[in-house]
Amino acid sequence: MTVSNHKLRKTAFWILSLGMSYYVALLPFQPPWLPASAGMMVAGIGWLISLTSNPRQLTINWPAAWVYLCLVLLYLSGLPTLDVPEYRQIMNTQVPLLFWGLPFVVYDEDFLRYSKTYLPNIFLASSIFSALVFIVYFIAIEISDPSIEYSKRSPYFFLPVHYLSLYYNVAIVLLLRQPCFIKKSFKIAAISVLIAAVILLASRIQWVVLLFILIIHFLSSKKFKTKKVLMYFMLLSVCVTLLYVFVPEVHRRMHETLDEVRSLKEVKNGKQTNHRKFIWKEALQLLSEVPITGYKPGLADKLLMERLSACDEKFWDGEKVYYLRDGFYNYHNQFLQSLAERGVGVVFLFLALLLPVFYGRNWLCTMMVLVIAFAMLTESILQRQAGVFLVATFLPMIVTLSTVRKKT
Length: 408
What we know:
The protein is mainly alpha-helical. The protein has 3 domains: 1-57; 63-107 and 276-408, no CATH class; 119-273, no CATH class. The protein contains 18 helices and 6 strands. It has helices at residues 3-26, 37-53, 62-76, 85-93, 96-99, 109-117, 119-144, 161-177, 184-201, 204-220, 226-246, 248-262, 276-289, 299-308, 334-342, 346-359, 363-378, 385-407, and strands at 59-60, 106-107, 267-268, 271-272, 315-316, 321-322. The strands form 3 sheets. Strands 1-2 form a two-stranded antiparallel ribbon. A two-stranded antiparallel sheet has the order 3-4. A hairpin with a 4-residue loop joins strand 5 (315-316) and strand 6 (321-322). Helix 8 (161-177) runs antiparallel to helix 9 (184-201) and helix 13 (276-289) packs across helix 14. The chain is globular, with a radius of gyration of 22 Å. The chain crosses the membrane at residues 12-30, 36-53, 60-78, 90-107, 119-141, 156-176, 188-217, 229-247, 346-374, 386-404.
C-alpha cells in the first residue's frame, strides 16, 4: 500500500468512526436541533472513501449482506410512487433502510475492531445517561404535578416513550450479552437504572419484552446460577413493587393492563381503554380485500382511517375522552402494516430476515431480533424515524458482530 493510500484509509476510518459514534450516542436522545442522521451522513462519506483507498483489504460479511438485502427489498416493495402525500412522507422516513447498514456489510479490519470495541459501549453509556436524566425528570414531574399522563413525562419530546423504552431494552440486551466497559460490580446498578426507566415509561409491551429478556438470558446462559437468577428477579420485583406503590401513573397503567387482559371487551366508566383491537379488526378486513398486492404505503393508512371514521366508541387515554375519527392512526402492528402496504410477499421477506439470525445460533443476535419483533406487535415501527434508525443500523451491526465473534 502506498503512503497516500495509507493516509486516505486512515482518514476514511476516522470519518466513518466519528460519524457512527455521534449517531449511536444520540439515539437515546434524538433532539431535533442535533439530528442523529447527520452522523450517518458523515459516516457514509467515510465509508465511500474507504472503498477507494484499498479495496483489497475490504471484507464482505455475507450474513449482514443478506439482512441488508432484505431491508432494501422491503423498501423497494413499497414502490411505485403514488400521488398520496402520506406515501412520500413514509418512504422518506424509510430511506435509511437503503444505506445505513452498508458500513457493516463491507468494511476493513480497523472499522470492525472499532465497531466491536466502541460502538456498543457508546450506545450503552448514552442509554444509561439518558435513563438517569429521564428518571430525574420523571421524579420532578411526580413531585410538581402527578396528574400528567405517562406519555408526557419524558424530557425527550421528539422520541415517543414506546421507542425510548425499546432503546433501553436493547441496551439491557447488550449489557447482558455483549462484552462492555462496565465492570461486573457496576453492571447490576446499570441494569437497575434501565429496568426502572422501562417500567416508569409505562409502555406495556416493553414490560413484557423486559421480562422476556431476563427469562431468555438466564435460560440460555452457559453459567446458569440459581443465586444470580434470583438476584435479578428479586431486583425486578422490588422495582415493580416500589414503582407500583409510589407512582400513581405506573399503578394506573398496570391496572389498565389487568382490565384489558381480563376482557378484550372491557369498558371502564363507559369508555374503551384499548383502541388497538378496533384498529386491528378494521385492518384485517382491509387485508382480506387485497391480500396479494396490498395498497402501498400512505394509501393503506388512508383507507384504514376511512373505516375508523365510522367508529363511534369513546376512548380514554388517561387524561381525556377521544374518538378514533378525530386522529390519524397507522396499523399499530408492523406485520399488519407491511401486509397492507406491500402484500403477502412481505411475509417471505420477514422470514428471509430470520435465516442468518437463527442460523448463526448467537444469543445476542437472536435476542435482539426477538426484542424488535415484540415491538412490532403493537407498533408500526418502520413508520417512525426512531424505529427505522434502530432496524436499519442495529440489525446489520449485531449480525456482523455476532458472526465475527463466532469465527474468532
